Amino acid sequence: xxxxxxxxxxxxxxxxxxxxxxxxxxxxxxxxxxxxxxxxxxxxxxxxxxxxxxxxxxxxxxxxxxxxxxxxxxxxxxxxxxxxxxxxxxxxxxxxxxxxxxxxxxxxxxxxxxxxxxxxxxxxxxxxxxxxxxxxxxxxxxxxxxxxxxxxxxxxxxxxxxxxxxxxxxxxxxxxxxxxxxxxxxxxxxxxxx
Length: 194
Description:
CATH topology of the largest domain: Aspartate Aminotransferase, domain 1
Distance between the termini: 37 Å
Radius of gyration: 24 Å
Largest sheet: 5 strands, antiparallel
CATH class of the largest domain: Alpha Beta
């Protein structure tokens, strides 16, 4: 047995451990080609992308399917996260909830979706125009401009959206002052929360 998985199972709530062990067995039999490892703190199974994973909690176990929204589920096995754009879950509260045949079918279907599509390519978001007030302020502060230009596109977008979304001039000016102070100090927006 995979050492990290063994450690995870030992540390799992004793009432939920048999469910985790059975789910692991089902996944490994249904899709033996998947790579088993610990991701996001629990057992997960990866092909081209993450196919599924197991998460044990105090009173239930989740079998999550990373791209579950694309997995056919004619038997209605998914019972949690049905509104999610990409993932789906099956929650188990007891061993009686673990139905081998439908779960095997679901795991095989998820592995097929993964094999056929792999990981979805991210679509690049267009650059957000820098608000005029921010552009003017940056021209007057070379240090802040240098730091702003060195930021990742998403970090620059954070500043642009924060300043540009202000509805009142007073709010925009207050945000601009805070932004220029942070940029001059070499700080990203929200760094104080990290």
